[in-house]
Amino acid sequence: MNLLAGGRWWHAIRTYSNASRKSRLGRTMSLDHFIQRSRALALYRDIFRGTARIPDDSTKDETRRYVRAEFERHRDVTDLGHIRYLISTGKAEWEGMQRYIQGL
């Protein structure tokens, strides 16, 4: 059997490469969810960078563990209103903490 005859080889390759086209990322998210996710990650990075200014190493490590735990605890939140609330309260808490760190 000659697969090259009649262009069947191309069909065989296309069928094989498209057989199961599932997304590696799972469910796709909406634009609003994407934006809020970006804001949450930016807040997380900002907090982590800011904790570098804490002079005591044990306090710095404890603060980083707390921040990580809080973000992990709310990882599966999908309600946009709740996500916005968490980001705004997180920012407010971090701003208060920054004022305290700068006073050290």
From TrEMBL:
This is LYR motif-containing protein 2. The lineage of its organism: Eukaryota, Fungi, Dikarya, Ascomycota, Pezizomycotina. Involved in efficient integration of the N-module into mitochondrial respiratory chain complex I. Pfam families: Complex1_LYR. Its main location: mitochondrion. InterPro entries: Complex1_LYR_dom, Complex1_LYR_LYRM2. Keywords: Mitochondrion, Transit peptide. Belongs to the complex I LYR family. It is found in: Mitochondrion.
